Amino acid sequence: MNEVPGNLYSHREQRPSLADEFDRDKHVSPIFGGDLLKQLRAMRRRRTLARRIMVIVALVYAAGMAAFIALLVLRNSADPGQTAAAPKGEKAALSTPTHELLTPKTMRLSVQQWKDSTERLREARVWIQKGRHDTASALLQGLLASNPNHGEALLELAQIYFQQGADVQACSLLQRLLTIEPQRKLAAQMLATLYSRASRHEQALVLANWILDVEPDATEAHRVAGLAYLQTNRLDLALVHFRKWVTAEPDNLAAQKQYADVLLAQGELEKARAIYEAILKKKPEEADAYRQLAICYARQTLVEQSVSTMIQAIYVIGASKVSTWFKDPGFASVRHQKLFALLEKQVTTPQISAHVVPQAGMQMGPNANFDLRRLEQVQAMLKAHY
User: Fold this and answer.
1) Which tens digits make up the pLDDT trace of 324-379?
2) How far apart are CA 326 and CA 295, in angstroms?
3) What angle, rounded to 10 degrees, do the helices at 338-348 and 372-385 form?
4) In whole angstroms, how far apart are CA 59 and each of 150, 180, 235, 317, 333?
5) Alpha-carbon distance 282 to 25, whole Å?
6) Residue 123's CB: how many other CB atoms inside 10 A?
7) Maximum C-alpha span of the chain
8) Could you tell me the pTM of the whole model?
9) How many Å apart are CA 209 and CA 5, to the nearest integer?
10) pLDDT digits (tens, 9 = 90+) for 81-97
11) DSSP helix/strand/coil, 306
């Protein structure tokens, strides 16, 4: 008996491949012609190429996914607190990119800083109420050193400087505040007032008009605008703003005085005179109201009323003050009237009462001791000559 080899496949009949069959039988059957063989080989090459393309695409896709996952891991490790998606309806301010948001640690530090700022501001306001502006200023300056753009601190410190007359420092702080927060109406009003104080009327007018565009009844803005127009001799516009100021604050004597001054400058003497008389009833010591009222009478050639007003002023504010009024151009129409000329002579001529003995170094200017008895003598003399 013959031995059977261990590898049975070695005795298996070798079958020809399909290509071999084609080569062998192509001369037998016309269907196995050369064209069909070429087509089959082309199909085989296309299948092979398709498999290779699919493998390449799969490799590229896998590499892209791996890179994307690695990027997410790196971002989450840098900002672990920002992985949660923002809820619907969140404001636009919270929809900023992840890298612009604060980390939890930074947020805690910021909140602590904000709390400290609030406490310092509260403490500074307490010292302001107690009148300790120096202590309040030190606290506010420290707050601004750590947070230069703190709006409330800038405003509070500017108000302290404003009240103390430190206009340059106040102006600098207010300009910085308005650059940061232009909606601060009080800051704009204070800055307009500071420019008006410094006689920078055109700049003050720009600010006043800006305020009035937003708040047409802002009384301080009307005052500043009126002064600006008055100082630049635009009386019609000044009158408009002072009228609105008086309308908004009918009991404000300063507003009434400014309004009456413009009326006088425009020749509306009756209206101006009525306002000056009303002012003097409420505030008899208002020196300039006496002068302007006397000028109103003088421009109407009412000599007796003009002289009487000036004598009343002598009783209230003294002859020394009144003696400086006579050279005012407003008295030109009555200057040569006998009654007025007599009063001017009596008031402006240096007089020394018999009971006053000059001391060494005493400055004895005109009417330095124009006493009530002398005033009564002048009144009696005026009556006798009138």
Assistant:
1) 999 999 999 998 888 888 888 888 876 544 333 333 333 333 444 455 565 666 66
2) 10
3) 160
4) 56, 55, 86, 104, 109
5) 136
6) 15
7) 182
8) 0.61
9) 116
10) 444 444 444 444 434 44
11) helix
